[in-house]
Each structure stands twice: as C-alpha cells, then as structure tokens.
Model the fold of this input.
Amino acid sequence: MNLHEYQGKKILNSFGVEIQRGIVAQSPAEAVAAAKKLTEDTGTNWHVIKAQVHAGGRGKGGGVKLAKNLAEVEQISDQIIGMHLVTPQTTADGKLVSQVLVAEDVYYPGDSEPSEFYISVLMNRATGRNMIMYSTEGGMDIEAVAENTPHLIFNEEIDPTMGLLPFQARKIAFNLGLSGKAFKQMTKFVSALYSAYVKSDSSLFEINPVLKTSDDRVIAVDAKVTIDENALFRHKDYEVLRDLREENPVEVEAKAVGLSYVDLDGNVGCMVNGAGLAMATMDLIKQAGGDPANFLDVGGTADAERVEIAFNLILKDPSVKAILVNIFGGIVRCDRVAQGIIDAYKSIGSIEVPIIVRLEGTNADIAKKLIDESGLDVYSVIEFQEAADKVQEVLA
Ligand code: GDP
Ligand code: MN
Done:
C-alpha cells in the first residue's frame, strides 16, 4: 500500500525520524492557515507547497514550489490544487491533485551548501535481506545517477538477527562524506529510519532528498513509503491511510468483491482460477502473439455470479480485444463453470469481443457440449494449445 508524502513523514516522525515539518491542506484558505501555524512553530516565513499524489518527480512537473509570503502560499496552492500533474512517473494525462502539503522551507536563504542525499530501505530479493541504499547524489536526478554513475550508489545489507549495527550507521555517515555534528546526526537518522522501517512493516522507504542543512541538521524532506499490505492486520491505524483515488478503479472494485485483479497493458482479457494457472495463461497469450490485459483469478468458486462480475470487470478495459477463460475444474466441476459462463453471458446481454473458453478437468466434455449447444458466440476448446491457436486466430 503506497502512502502520500505527508502520511509517510508522519509515520517516520512517530519513530523518531527528523522530518521537514508540514501541514496538509485541501484548499488555498487551508494552506494559508497552515502556513501561519507553521510560522508560529518554526519561525520561518518561507514555505514549500507540495502536490500530494502517488507519483515521484513532482518537482520536475511543477508540483513543488517555494512561497515567500502568505499571498504566494495562496496563489501557488490555488494553482496546484485541481491541476493534473504530469511527471516522469505518471501517464500523459497526469494525476489530479486534491491536496497539498504546506511545509517549512528548510533550504535556508543564503545557505551556501545544503547537501541533498539519497537514502532508501528495501528488501534485497537476491539475498532475502533488508538493505539500506544510499548516495551523496540525492535530489531530483537519482534515476540518472543510477543509470550513468552507478558506482556512486552504495548498499549496506542488514543481518536480520542482529539488526542495523552501530558500525554500519557510522559507515554510511562516513561514505556520505560527513564529519563532526553532521556525522552524528546522520548516524541517528539512519538508525531511526531503519527501526521505523522494521516497526511499521514497510516494504519500501525512499527518502530523497535527505537534507543536511548548513547548521548540520539531518532531515527527511521527501518520503515515499510503501506499507506491506500483508502486515496491515498489525497496524489497524494505517488502514485509513489508503487513498482509493490513487488506485486503479477496476482493481479497487475487484478487491471489494474478493477477486484478485491486476490491470496490465495488453489486449487479451484473462479469467482464470488459481494464480499459477494465471501465470501459465499469460505465457500462453504471449506465445500466441497477444498481450495479457489483466491478471484475474476468480478463485475456487467459479459460479455464474462470480463469472459475471469477472466478465464485467474485464470488459471495463477498452483495450480488450478478446477474452480467454482458462479454468481447471478440480473441486469445481467444469459443467458448473460452463453453465455459469452461459448464464453470465446471457445476463450481460451482448459481449462484443470474442470469448475463448478452455475448461479442463472433471466433466470437461460435458462442459464443452453445453457451450457448443448454447448457441452463444463462444469458442470452446479443451487443449491448451488449441486455446492458444484460437487466440492467435481471433487477434489476426
Ligand atoms: P519529488 O520531485 O516528487 O521527488 O519531490 P521532493 O519532495 O523531493 O521535492 C523536489 C525538490 O524540491 C527537492 O529535491 C528540493 O530541491 C526542493 N525542495 C523540497 N523542499 C524544499 C524546501 O523546503 N525549500 C526549497 N527551497 N526547496 C525544496
Ligand atoms: Mn523526492
């Protein structure tokens, strides 16, 4: 589950990580009130107005701007709230901004050497261990650093039985070129950050930039936080942080009815029972020259009602040019699934795209007969390869 910057920062701070302070606002008036409140707490009259959307690269897209007085806070918030922010990480249509974070300006005027670092915590899948990835080259172009000068990005792996050891935090601060007070602040920052990552059951922290100010404070200026959904039961208070407006609407709808649906870019809709079969089916579609439009596992009970919901979900995607139903009838008999498909088809009325149904397992032959005799525009096959050939044929 991805979080907004302001939510991520709040979690970091609850575990003792120093952050750039801010208040979220839904309107220009709220933004002005937020700025006034921040000035009381921080003493600075300068604020940054930051679009809150689930996408990075906001600075590049004009979603992060400095305001030097309250009039500018109002004017910039008015401009950002309601805009469709286009960044290197969004589609060309951009993302609708419905709220901004009004944050204290931590890049002091005249600060000759603010240093922007990159620090993330994530799982190294090759070793199965958490690691801290960091670089002196933080800021808006970390992707370019990874591409052109990967040797400037360091990794520190953490032994799960020991946790982050003090020497590792010191090594990170040293490699970031720090000394004196800043060195000490950085070791504190990194230790708090790692502990927050573990305690919040996150699967990603990406803090870019981590700022070192000229008076040697070390603070998180940005925060991308992903919480491991499988651990949400341990964090009931995080559940409300989910922002459904940021998620794919069809995926949200599927989830609400207990189907696992993942939207993909292709043109062949898939309805499958079982995740393994879903993967195999997507391979089959690729081999047949198509591209899967989605991953949809209807699970064990492929009855008419579920099949109908599944068809309707798949048909919401306008790029779907064909639908492949690939179901293995083990516990659920194929003839029951076939009847479900027929009933669902009739209930929906007209389906414009060709449907290929491959049912294998208990009563597969009866199922095929049912579909063939239904008079509906559905191709029924039993062999995997036949299904692939048919997909190829209808796409041609
Ligand atoms: P991102 O572009 O989505 O990664 O958003 P960030 O939160 O990282 O902000 C983008 C850039 O805005 C940062 O790299 C900073 O250079 C700049 N920025 C962020 N906060 C401040 C601030 O308080 N003052 C000033 N002057 N610039 C800031
Ligand atoms: Mn950033």
Observations:
- The chain has three domains: 1-19+109-247, 21-105, 248-395.
- The domain at 21-105 is CATH 3.30.1490.20 (Dna Ligase; domain 1).
- The two ends are 39 Å apart (CA to CA).
- The first helix runs from residue 5 to 14.
